[in-house]
Amino acid sequence: MIDAYSILWSDLAALKRRWPRYLLTTLMSPVLYLVAFGWGLGRGINMNGTSYLEFVIPGIIALTSMTTSFNGAGTRLNVDRLYFKSFDECLMAPVGLSSLLLGKALIGVVRGVLSSVAFLLVAMLIAPHIHISLPFVIGLLLSCLTFAFLGVLAALLARSHEDMATFGSLILMPMTFLGGTFFSLSQVPFGLKMALYALPLTHASLFLRAAALEQPLPWTSFLVLMGFFFAFLGGGMMALKRMSV
Amino acid sequence: MNNIIDISGLSKEYSGKKVVDGLNLSVEQGELFGFLGPNGAGKTTTIRILTTLTKPTSGTVLINGIDAAKDPGKVKEVFGVVQQHLSLNRDLTIGENLELHARLHHIKAAARKKRIADLLDYVELSDHKDYLIDDVSGGMKRRAMIARALLHRPKLLFLDEPTVGLDAQTRRRVWDLIRRMKREGATVFLTTHYIEEAEALCQRVGVLHHGKLIAIGSPLELRQTLGLVAVELQGNGNGTTYRYFPDRAEASKFIQDLPSSERVIMRASNLEDVFIELTGQKVTGD
After folding, report:
1. What is the ipTM of this complex?
2. Structure confidence at residue B49 (pLDDT)
3. Options 3.40.50.20, 3.40.50.2300, 3.40.50.300, 4.10.520.10; which CATH number does B3-217 get?
4. Would the pLDDT of B176 be above 60?
């Protein structure tokens, strides 16, 4: 754990230098989604007794946790590995692979939590009925961890910066709009619904939404998300072992 | 003397092409050993294998008696590395880069600050500790990398083309640092394609060509295999030809017997001559 913190320490040192700019840029997308979908498109829509604004905010928080955790860990590692080449220094240090993997994922978790909390603060000004409970916090942390490890896995597999961009376009972008963020899955045909349940963001959205709106918690979604977390963790370990002795 | 590096039968293939080909080599503790060869000879691949970054296709590597494939964690405590390319984290300052390395090598917090300060003083970068990497010169970056590699007091230091891209003055400054490390007891294993660097620094030089070690010895021994004095004959339209002699007397005698129209240069032979004679190519790859 100490080694993982050492790796996180360096990423935090870099983040500390530019956190106001980071927060500003990271808030841009979710606030735009909120304005466009929550206020614009969804005004007047009622989702089984809940306003569309209150429906969409937890989804956007799940989406924010995905994009910022993925990019915070993945893009960062991709740059360290292929551009700065400073990741070699970590590989040559007497540090266990699990610590190395965790250390590289933790900055994604930190960034994901920071961005999600910042957005949540903005959103609560607009929709004060959002309920922040312990399950919500745990769900948010699990979502950040899962997508941070997905980012690390993608960065370890990528052979170029272009590969990361391709991954973003082919995996993250469809998830952004189809992962239960902006609409209820009960409205889509059965076949598509099953396909959408295969996306980790769908389960993050379902769990966070239920927790935020004080509905019965979908623990199956929590377990599925946890399954994705372990799958990405395992994949990351295999990719790391493949690239070192 | 104890060997700090023992390499036997080391090979590395990429897509069926051998980049390192059956390398056998030992380096003694406290030695300043150099790998000389043109770009693409297999020097960097060898260093990447020795530093556990790349898996060999076959062969074994013992570092300080430890098998690098079986116990990479222990091996990583023995060596420090200055890579050919800039490998500093450019989002961090020089001081923070060193701090990260110290943390990853488990140097206790109490000792960390002093050791970083001492090493920055050693490489004359104390005034630049808080500068971001992109705000300092290439020579300073290289010296910061050397300071970082020395931070955990490694027994063995790998320097992969340590002066590539540096101006002559900075290069000599780095040479002074390398000599000082050697004086202070470290084993230094460096790769270079600069002839003068190998001659100026190394006690023994291994000549690498297409992944094979084709000659090994002190710079003087290698030159002696050829002759310590070189005579260049700049013929009319036939290009330059070279002749080698054990001493100046024999070379002078040879020159006296030449027709007066021949343009002749007599000089000390060097490792470039050795490399050309062995491979038919220049080390610089021209």
Report:
1. 0.85
2. 94
3. 3.40.50.300
4. yes
